[in-house]
Design a protein that fits this description.
Layout lengths: L3 E2 L4 E9 L3 E4 H18 L1 H6 L10 H8 L3 E4 L25 H16 L9 E5 L10 H9 L4 E5 L5 H15 L4 E8 L19 E9 L7 E12 L5 E2 L6 H4 L11 E2 L1 H22 L9 E3 L5 H12 L12 H4 L6 H8 L9 E8 L3 E11 L1
Helix pairs in contact: 1-3, 4-5, 8-9
Length: 381
Amino acid sequence: MSEFQLPRGIVISGTGLWTPPEAISNEELVEALNAHAEKFNREHADAIESGQVKAKSFSSAEFIEKASGIKNRYVISKEGILDPERMRPYLPERADEELCLQAEMGLNAAKLALEKANKKPQDIDAVIVGASYMQRAYPAISIEIQSALGIDGFAFDMEVACSSATFALQRAVDAISSGSAKSVLVINPELASPQIDFSDRDSHFIFGDVAVATVVERKESCNTDSAWEILGTKAKTVFSNNIRSNFSYTARAADVDPFGEGKLFRQNGRKVFKEVCPMAAAHLESQVQALGFEPNEVNRWWLHQANINMNLLIAKKLMGNDASPERAPIVLDQYANTGCAGSIIAFNLHNDDLPVGSKGVICSFGAGYSIGSLALEKIAI
């Protein structure tokens, strides 16, 4: 597979990170799950004993941290999730005239990114929203945010699961390269908590809510002292059923429960680990080598934040014994898996300390399978 070599002079000039005000620890999550499981198993004791119903499994904070590295997650609504009678967030429906929740999240992050990049809405030509789930089909969340900011241009939504952020950034680069835009605002509002089955021991702890945003523009228009020049992008998709969400509006035509068993997020974690880790490592190694340097010359890897064991294995494959949290920072311990936003959170929190001339790579991987990455170099403006 050939690399797409980009024309030089396109930069990331600013990012924004909006964190929801409420957090849930592993201990809180486990307390709710175990209370729900105990009640379920008691009420269905006869059916469980006869083999007609499967008993709910109990969990522990230690199991969650060992399996994933996650200790905490931020969510939009904490109360409903921790109610053993409800086991899902409570998000009241808003009127059509109100800003929708996902647009509100994205708008918060967008304002922070614009401030960091010293940009005003009138400086932006396009808005791209990428996320693992969209709150609605249309009108596009991106157009709603565009309207709220007063941006005169175009906007669209896109979804490639956990690679939505890197794929959206690549579409921003494509737009600038082609001349259809001079500056693009990429927004990733990950409203993940509604998709989770909080009664399932194997997946109830995985995701958190967050929103990130990134300003991509030509170097000539950049108003900051330094920026990250995009040296190259790379994307790869390979079909797999190992990470899947079957929630769909077509459920009403199939006469099935759209929220029933198997309709929300599910994965075969062992197969994902075994298949994605070598794919991601090979993808990243070939990308940087095609750009003229080796993985050990990369100062920082902002990897997808899904599972600590995946990150450690990929970092080890790329850096050998030089792998460290400083070179491949971890944020999932506090934020959990935030879909496509994880690598952008890592970039937002862990890039200012690097000097001009440093090289880094933003990478995401997830359902599809999909892998997206951007190789960067910090430059003075």
